[in-house]
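Lab manual, section 2.4: Encoding a predicted structure.

Procedure: take the sequence of the chain (239 residues), apply the prediction step described in section 2.3, and record the output as structure tokens. A sample record is shown.
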Amino acid sequence: MITLNLDHLALKDGERVLDLGCGRGRHLHALYWHERALDVTGLDLDFADLGAAIDGFFELPPPAESPPRSAVFSVGDAGRLPFADASFDVVICCEVLEHLPDVDAALAEITRVLKPGGRFALSVPRYWPEKICWTLSTEYHNTPGGHVRIFKDGELRRRVEAQGYRFYRRHWAHALHSPYWWLQCALWEKRETSGAVKTYRKLLEWDLLSAPRLTRWSEQALNPLLGKSVALYFEKARA
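Recorded output:
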């Protein structure tokens, strides 16, 4: 399930890309198998998730012949990145900032490791669908490793711009997932056994694996209204 649109990052052969908070590797894998030959680094605080991301590389076919590409993995903290200054051409941070106790520390570290003129893309849960989740269930955001804040995208955009970035694009994603999470939150105590939750989950899994045109077009049309996530794209100042 890809949230960011990699075409908006103007990727070039040989660029170094950091997937900060890569989790189980959904964007990391997409970057490695991208048509551009990239040197990708996946960093996550959860060793088990990072192990699953590594395993995913052996479950997929090798990329088409191209210039050499590489993948590197690291366990680390977003507030103390184990990389030198200006190490990366691109940094992505997808569905991570809402989990962090110190967002500004993470943004400062991203700025430090990103080259001047580099691109930075992030996504977070969109404000109003997330607010409904919090209203329907306190357990939704009180679980270990859960969401500790809700962002308004305008406010988050200004926080990033204050670090020395130019904002250049925004879009929304995963409209079909918003009702699923509302349903889970409304039935939080019964979500593991609920027939309605299970049925909706199977629908989403079928949609992800089959990608039928009808649901793809429907979600694209609904994303501006119902999109569960908002994605923001920036360019770091060159000086």
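Check your result against the sample. The beta strands are 16-20, 39-44, 70-75, 88-94, 114-125, 165-173, 229-236.
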